[in-house]
Amino acid sequence: MNEFFRTVMGDHAPGPDERPDDRLIGTLQVIRTLLGMIAAVWIVLAYPLSSGRQDFVIGKLVELGLACGILLAGSILGISAFLVAGTPDRRRAFARRLWGPVAYMLALALGPALVWLSLTTVRGDLASETDVVDFFSGIFGRGILCSLVSFLVAAVGWLLALALLIASIPYTILAAYVCVASCFRASDVHQLLPALLSPLLVWSLFAFQLFNGPDVAAPPEVLYTFLLGGPLSVTALSAWEVWRLRRRHGITLRGALGR
Question: What percent of the chain has pLDDT over 90?
Answer without folding.
Answer: 8
